[in-house]
Amino acid sequence: MTQGSKMEVIKEIIKIIEYYLKIVGKELERFQIQVLAGDLYKKFRTDTLEDIILFFMMIRNEELGKIGYYDTFRDKIIAYVEPFMQYKSEQREKLIKIKNRKFKTSNETMSEEAYAKFTELQKLIKNPVQKRSETFSINSILKSVDNYLEHLPENCKKLSDSDLKFEIRRTEFNNKAAYEILLQEQQRRKDENLSKKKKKKDG
After folding, report:
1. Interaxial angle between packed helices 112-126 and 161-171, expressed in degrees from 0 to 180 and rounded to the nearest 10
2. I need a labelling partner for 91 at 20 to 30 A (CA). Which of 16, 82, 118, 167 fits?
């Protein structure tokens, strides 16, 4: 994990854990949080802080399956690491398959803009994020996600049909909220096209 020194990163992991505990209404002693943060630092050594945020989001949304009984909260959280890494591996494979498709020779040609978005997404999944000049914060990540979803209903209207299909495939497994919004836009276009065809036929 290359988003700062070890202590700086662990401090941010502690903030993520505290935020998660606040959401689920659970309390831990300070030393328990610190121990868990240290363990997660080791487990996510080649990953990013964004991965840890996604990790806790998926635990909260029960997207990593059911975990058996564990004596401590720490053991339960650590038990979710393996299924999360498996999830990431599966997503990486799916993205590679999408990339390897010959879009230019199919009916769904990928625009340069869509391919650039895909390439950037693949880099985020495959490689750790390099240290940034600005300080990482949970709020900045959450605000970024919220801002994306808030403007997506309007922004997706500007996408070409092929780009819209690409975004639907891209978000199907890693952003359910965005996926639903994009599907609604796709359905809106289908309904609109049917309406136009009907008017043309009646006219």
Report:
1. 10
2. 16
The token duo for 164 is: 């819209």
Q: Which amino acid is it at 203?
A: G
Q: Specify if 87 maps to a domain.
A: yes
Angstrom distance (rounded) from CA 26 to CA 41: 21
pLDDT mean over 122-139: 46
For residues 60 and 122, what is the distance between their CA atoms, to the nearest angstrom? 25
Higher-pLDDT residue of 147 and 155 is 155
Number of domains in the chain: 2
Domain that holds residue 146: 139-200
Report the 10 Å Cβ neighbour count for 155. Answer: 12
- Report yes or no on whether pTM surpasses 0.85: no
Say whether pLDDT at 104 is over 80. Answer: no
Split at pLDDT 50, 70, 90, the class of 38 is very high
Q: 171 lies in a domain?
A: yes
